[in-house]
């Protein structure tokens, strides 16, 4: 296992290599706070925590930075008024609780920010708003205008209209997409745990990971999918996904506890810093496809198709498909796999799973002649594809192999 605390350490065990100037100097910051940080152990909304958070964000605003808050907590805030002892399992009751709770949550924030002379503005978004060009632009324009007029945008997922298929299910990834949308300088994820640990933080001996520079730094790290208290939804998995999305889009990300918010924003070496990776800025759609979707099935490609899709960024045609797995419908996200099982890309498929066996291995011309022009369409169009490996030869072998 890698050294959990990287860089030279002070006597206190802090990481002095992390100056965190990217945080201290950030002009535009997205801060996400999770349900677990906003609720008391008894399940009520923690007004003190909301007040403290508003103090910290207002300070940063007063210092000239633009701040967008992404806040969970609507479902949690709706439980007590609805007489529910715990987070309900079914989607409709969760959505009902969210509609009750969101208003209460915003009322608390409105009062807390008003003490600093700031106007809170509720912004409810769905994944559609992030990936469809018109909605994307609208969301971007509204958020920018809110920042221009000095308001404090408070974003949450639009829980009442989001469905299982399209909902993020967590605000961690939404926050990363918002950071990308706004070209933020930094993303801060606040939870009830002060950092990413190399295993369950409740376990004695678990070690804080101070810095993550690439995926290899997470090898061997046990990233749990459920929080301790059952109010949060994604556990560490979605936070690490969020950090991956943001850093790929060039946005450095700090993960720490809400209690550390002030220190994190000041650039102190608290929590876990995920450093930004300076690469070509991906589209929001690509980020969403790669990180925020769950594949509904897989399509297995022959080596020639792997080379075409990965090497030439071509659309996937029926001729290159050898197998189909899972029960997906047209429009669903699917994994494209090489024959050795490696996932080489993810894309939105144009056919139902049941249709593919009759098409695979056939040329587009044959399909159009035998089945009609509707069957000329690709299995996955290149615009609906995101590549997950770069070197086709690693998985497909050199050209010449069938
Ligand atoms: N490797 C890990 N390091 C830190 N925390 C972890 C890890 N694996 C699982 N967790 C859990 O993830 C929880 C945070 O996730 P969650 O409850 O969804 O938070 P939030 O409501 O802030 O989104 C922590 O309370 C912790 O118990
Ligand atoms: N939109 C939901 C968010 C659920 C969610 O992502 O929760 P969390 O894991 O606490 O960030 C709510 O407000 O309850």
UniProtKB/TrEMBL annotation:
<dbReference type="GO" id="GO:0004349">
    <property type="term" value="F:glutamate 5-kinase activity"/>
</dbReference>
<keyword id="KW-0641">Proline biosynthesis</keyword>
<feature type="domain" description="PUA">
    <location>
        <begin position="297"/>
        <end position="376"/>
    </location>
</feature>
<dbReference type="InterPro" id="IPR036393">
    <property type="entry name" value="AceGlu_kinase-like_sf"/>
</dbReference>
<feature type="binding site">
    <location>
        <position position="159"/>
    </location>
    <ligand>
        <name>substrate</name>
    </ligand>
</feature>
<feature type="binding site">
    <location>
        <position position="171"/>
    </location>
    <ligand>
        <name>substrate</name>
    </ligand>
</feature>
<keyword id="KW-0418">Kinase</keyword>
<dbReference type="InterPro" id="IPR001057">
    <property type="entry name" value="Glu/AcGlu_kinase"/>
</dbReference>
<dbReference type="InterPro" id="IPR002478">
    <property type="entry name" value="PUA"/>
</dbReference>
<keyword id="KW-0028">Amino-acid biosynthesis</keyword>
<keyword id="KW-0067">ATP-binding</keyword>
<feature type="binding site">
    <location>
        <position position="72"/>
    </location>
    <ligand>
        <name>substrate</name>
    </ligand>
</feature>
<dbReference type="GO" id="GO:0055129">
    <property type="term" value="P:L-proline biosynthetic process"/>
</dbReference>
<dbReference type="InterPro" id="IPR005715">
    <property type="entry name" value="Glu_5kinase/COase_Synthase"/>
</dbReference>
<dbReference type="InterPro" id="IPR011529">
    <property type="entry name" value="Glu_5kinase"/>
</dbReference>
<feature type="binding site">
    <location>
        <begin position="233"/>
        <end position="239"/>
    </location>
    <ligand>
        <name>ATP</name>
    </ligand>
</feature>
<feature type="binding site">
    <location>
        <position position="32"/>
    </location>
    <ligand>
        <name>ATP</name>
    </ligand>
</feature>
<dbReference type="GO" id="GO:0003723">
    <property type="term" value="F:RNA binding"/>
</dbReference>
<comment type="similarity">
    <text>Belongs to the glutamate 5-kinase family.</text>
</comment>
<comment type="function">
    <text>Catalyzes the transfer of a phosphate group to glutamate to form L-glutamate 5-phosphate.</text>
</comment>
<protein>
    <recommendedName>
        <fullName>Glutamate 5-kinase</fullName>
        <ecNumber>2.7.2.11</ecNumber>
    </recommendedName>
</protein>
<dbReference type="InterPro" id="IPR036974">
    <property type="entry name" value="PUA_sf"/>
</dbReference>
<dbReference type="InterPro" id="IPR015947">
    <property type="entry name" value="PUA-like_sf"/>
</dbReference>
<keyword id="KW-0547">Nucleotide-binding</keyword>
<dbReference type="Pfam" id="PF00696">
    <property type="entry name" value="AA_kinase"/>
</dbReference>
<keyword id="KW-0808">Transferase</keyword>
<keyword id="KW-0963">Cytoplasm</keyword>
<dbReference type="Pfam" id="PF01472">
    <property type="entry name" value="PUA"/>
</dbReference>
<feature type="binding site">
    <location>
        <begin position="191"/>
        <end position="192"/>
    </location>
    <ligand>
        <name>ATP</name>
    </ligand>
</feature>
<dbReference type="GO" id="GO:0005524">
    <property type="term" value="F:ATP binding"/>
</dbReference>
<dbReference type="InterPro" id="IPR001048">
    <property type="entry name" value="Asp/Glu/Uridylate_kinase"/>
</dbReference>
<comment type="pathway">
    <text>Amino-acid biosynthesis; L-proline biosynthesis; L-glutamate 5-semialdehyde from L-glutamate: step 1/2.</text>
</comment>
<dbReference type="InterPro" id="IPR041739">
    <property type="entry name" value="G5K_ProB"/>
</dbReference>
<dbReference type="GO" id="GO:0005829">
    <property type="term" value="C:cytosol"/>
</dbReference>
């Amino acid at each position: 296992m890698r050294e959990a605390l990287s860089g030279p350490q002070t006597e206190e065990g802090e990481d002095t290599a992390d100056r965190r100037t990217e945080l201290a100097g950030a002009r535009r910051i997205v801060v996400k706070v999770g349900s677990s940080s906003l609720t008391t152990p008894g399940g009520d909304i923690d007004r003190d925590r909301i007040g403290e958070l508003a103090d910290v964000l207002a300070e940063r605003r007063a210092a000239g930075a633009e701040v967008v808050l992404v806040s969970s907590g609507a479902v949690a805030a709706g439980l007590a008024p609805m007489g529910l002892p715990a987070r309900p399992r079914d989607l409709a009751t969760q959505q009902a609780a969210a509609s009750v709770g969101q208003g209460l949550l915003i009322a608390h924030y409105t009062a807390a920010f008003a003490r600093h002379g700031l106007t809170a503005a509720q912004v409810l978004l769905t994944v559609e708003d992030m990936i469809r060009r018109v909605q994307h632009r609208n969301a971007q324009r509204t958020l920018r205008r809110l920042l221009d007029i000095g308001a404090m945008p408070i974003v949450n997922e639009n829980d009442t209209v989001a469905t299982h298929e399209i909902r993020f299910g967590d605000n961690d990834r939404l926050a990363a997409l918002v950071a990308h949308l706004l070209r933020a300088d930094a993303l801060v994820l606040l939870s009830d745990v002060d950092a990413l640990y190399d295993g369950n933080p409740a376990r004695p001996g678990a070690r804080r990971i101070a810095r993550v520079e690439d995926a290899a730094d997470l090898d061997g790290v046990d990233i749990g999918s459920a929080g301790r208290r059952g109010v949060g939804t994604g556990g560490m998995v979605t936070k690490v996904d969020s950090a991956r999305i943001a850093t790929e889009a060039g946005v450095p990300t700090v993960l720490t506890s809400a209690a550390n918010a002030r220190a994190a924003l000041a650039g102190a070496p608290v929590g876990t810093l995920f450093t930004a990776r300076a690469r070509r800025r991906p589209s929001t759609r690509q980020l969403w496809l790669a990180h925020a979707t769950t594949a509904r099935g897989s399509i297995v490609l022959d080596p020639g198709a792997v080379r075409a899709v990965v090497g030439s960024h071509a659309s996937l045609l029926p001729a290159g498909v050898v197998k189909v797995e899972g029960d997906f419908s047209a429009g669903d996200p699917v994994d494209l796999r090489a024959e050795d099982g490696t996932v080489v890309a993810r894309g939105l498929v144009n056919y139902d799973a049941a249709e593919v066996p009759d098409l695979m291995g056939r040329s587009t011309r044959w399909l159009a002649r035998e089945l009609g022009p509707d069957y000329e369409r690709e299995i996955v169009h290149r615009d609906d594809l995101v590549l997950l490996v770069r070197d086709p030869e690693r998985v497909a072998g050199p050209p010449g192999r069938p």
